[in-house]
Amino acid sequence: MAELTEQKDFLWEGKDKNGKPSKGVFPAKSEAVAKAELRKQGYRVTKIKVKSQSIFKKRPKAITPGDIAVFSRQLATMLKAGVPLVQSFDIVGRGNENKNMQDLLLGIKSDIEGGDRLAEALKRRPIYFDELFCNLVEAGEHAGVLETLLDKIATYKEKTESMKKKIKKALTYPIAVVVVAFIVTTILLIFVVPVFADLFKSFGADLPAFTQMVVAISEWMQDYWWIVIGIVVGSVYTFGYFKKRSRKFCHFLDRALLKLPVVGLILNKSAIARFARTLSTMSAAGVPLVDALQSVAGACGNIIYSEAVLKMREEVATGQRLQYAMSQAELFPHMVQQMVAIGEESGSIDAMLAKVADFYEEEVDNLVDNLSSLMEPIIMVILGTLVGGLVVAMYLPIFKMGAAVG
């Protein structure tokens, strides 16, 4: 298997065939490779080292699921045009602007040239190609319709990534605004409120209760701001730690998220859409239902739905109909169950599931738009309460003194 190693630039010095001093920069994956290649070219290397890179140099971008979707579409187009598989990888790989993606595709090309089937080469890179992707490619190779399956994979990837982006956008916006509001409030409490507090002390007048409370919070923040930072950083670290390592915590978190108003509805419908889209794609590829459900479980994006699908798989493996197994899971709406039942009766379950996926993807789009519209006034209320409350607290004593003078 070809190693996915990034090339480095080596500065070297030595002598050419005629004994004249020479030096230059040679790109290679290792020092040994650089020396060997220079020796082939007739140079005797006396000194070589890795060229130091500027910290401001643009680094290659990480490979994203979107990159994999684009690659799938490009490869399907090449194969449909009659271009051989190895040549297709060479064209798509060398034409990719992302250096990491280029190395990945050329590495797969090298494996295929070495005798591996495409599915085998992809399975060696599970970070980028999941079980679902590999199973569909394998089914396409066995049936001789690889280009058709790659086209279906590209469509599937594009739709799922589009849905993920919309959900992330809907959730990121309010979180970002709340974080900014927290930072602004903290700055006001630590730096602005103390200025007013000193001013009020010089007047020697009694402060309103609301102002006294804000000044007390400000004094506490000035003395114990490090506790607040510690709690925030500790909470973020603890959340990330348990989310990666504790299945029980993930189970609790996913169940709690599904019960949230509006957000929970979006996550429920998106999980159903992913379930339907993935199972439709695999059914259309001719993958047996029991095998397909194994891959579908990992594509739902929610551990509650993943566990339910795995349980459905066990029931289907014992001879139960999929529609009955779905009804036992108590997660899928009656409409989805009926569509699956019709698909099972008519032998067109892939088409029925595709219609279900289309419907729920549109539902998610509408809910995300509604959530964005709903969050804007709520965010304005939060910001107005926090910042406006501090402003009112600081100006209350001024208004009180003005009334007393008047």
TrEMBL record:
Membrane topology: Multi-pass membrane protein
Species in which this protein is naturally found: Methyloglobulus morosus KoM1
Protein family: Belongs to the GSP F family.
A GO CC annotation given for this chain: plasma membrane
Record-level GO BP terms: protein secretion by the type II secretion system
Chain residue ranges for the region called Disordered: 1-26
Protein name per its UniProtKB record: Type 4 fimbrial assembly protein PilC
InterPro entries in the cross-refs: GspF/PilC, T2SS_GspF/T4SS_PilC_CS, T2SS_GspF_dom, T2SS_GspF_sf
Entry keyword set: Cell inner membrane, Cell membrane, Membrane, Transmembrane, Transmembrane helix, Transport
One Pfam family named in its UniProt record: T2SSF
Spans through the membrane: 171-197, 224-242, 378-398
Annotated Basic and acidic residues bias: 1-19
Coiled-coil region list: none
Location (main, coarse): membrane
Lineage: Bacteria, Pseudomonadati, Pseudomonadota, Gammaproteobacteria, Methylococcales
Location in or out of the cell: Cell inner membrane
Domain Type II secretion system protein GspF: 71-194, 275-397
